[in-house]
Amino acid sequence: xxxxxxxxxxxxxxxxxxxxxxxxxxxxxxxxxxxxxxxxxxxxxxxxxxxxxxxxxxxxxxxxxxxxxxxxxxxxxxxxxxxxxxxxxxxxxxxxxxxxxxxxxxxxxxxxxxxxxxxxxxxxxxxxxxxxxxxxxxxxxxxxxxxxxxxxxxxxxxxxxxxxxxxxxxxxxxxxxxxxxxxxxxxxxxxxxxxxxxxxxxxxxxxxxxxxxxxxxxxxxxxxxxxxxxxxxxxxxxxxxxxxxxxxxxxxxxxxxxxxxxxxxxxxxxxxxxxxxxxxxxxxxxxxxxxxxxxxxxxxxxxxxxxxxxxxxxxxxxxxxxxxxxxxxxxxxxxxxxxxxxxxxxxxxxxxxxxxxxxxxxxxxxxxxxxxxxxxxxxxxxxxxxxxxxxxxxxxxxxxxxxxxxxxxxxxxxxxxxxxxxxxxxxxxxxxx
Length: 433
Prior knowledge:
By secondary structure, the chain is of the alpha/beta class. 30% of the residues lie in helices and 23% in strands. The protein has helices spanning 138-151, 156-166, 172-178, 222-235, 255-268, 283-292, 306-313, 320-332, 351-364, 378-384, 396-406, 419-423; strands at residues 8-12, 18-26, 28-30, 33-35, 42-44, 50-54, 57-63, 69-71, 76-81, 86-88, 91-92, 94-96, 112-114, 117-124, 183-186, 240-243, 273-278, 296-301, 336-343, 368-373, 411-413. Strands 1, 2, 6, 7, 8, 9 and 12 form a 7-stranded antiparallel beta sheet that branches. A 7-stranded parallel beta sheet has the order 15-16-17-18-19-20-21. Strands 5, 10, 13 and 14 form a 4-stranded antiparallel beta sheet that branches. A hairpin with a 5-residue loop joins strand 7 and strand 8 (69-71). Helix 1 crosses helix 3, helix 2 packs across helix 3 (172-178) and helix 6 runs parallel beside helix 8 (320-332). The two termini are 26 Å apart.
């Protein structure tokens, strides 16, 4: 049911308990500013969402009596992690105290309470159900891990996916692999040629935040890749394999191994789609992979503007122009080209970024935008890249509407599509997964 009035702000007592403050309506944050959230933008927190307290931070709300903005001084501010397939429209609004710690690498969406339910300002951008919490069966996953470890006893990648990705980090893609379905992750590189501020697999010792997961520690062989991906492509429903995962470095640094693997995979099966998730830093490598049989590419970026991109990625021996060229290369081979677009309300929806995104779509003949929530402390991020003035902003929802209106062929989503969607009806309801 849509809300008919603004929900209330939440606060934490620092002991794992969360309360509502009915004297304050919840607001959202865009850039550095706290602003009212349109009532129609609030949806119930989807299944799989998580609540966080934000230590050292006081939530900002609108006083129910006066209509003025003020702080909630009853406890720490609260935010939500919203699950895959959903994109947040506003960040949590708060004032950061001088001794507040840097927040871990998660997304911090505005959160509120009304009529015994949690609400967040978000949209469901993707109908694919591949990472729905309700779809995971721990018994099936445990059986799959046991079966596949026995089937491939010497395969270091299968062991890594089991011990690290599935059993330790509960990676949704790894769990799906061990359930024998859909997208299979293929970590392939322990090294990276970027120094992303918010890297989830490597943080310098001088930073106060930890990596959320450990990086791959070995270079897999083409034989190891082929051994477990061919059976998946042959037997899984809507099969898809993806090089480049959060638990590794940059897969294009291993392009020769990946190229050899793709060629060998295609000798055994033509089923499914072969994708690479990448920073797009090596267009020549992308060309070689396309010639080997790569079907799709997803290039991650926090912006369509060079100076914002490079301030965050801090690239080694490549530039923003290279990622644009990689997208062009994929399209020149007739492949599927996506951007993994890190949405940060107040920057992603700025007028400058909108114009840059339009140019990127036109220049690359882009196929898809994956509207991803940016997992990072907002204050820390904006300070690190020097974004102290963000310019005029239109709102994330309006940005999406304008892009959809001008570029109706560009698909919106959250996941890499299987070949059935690429070649068939992309908008089909995949609830029958």
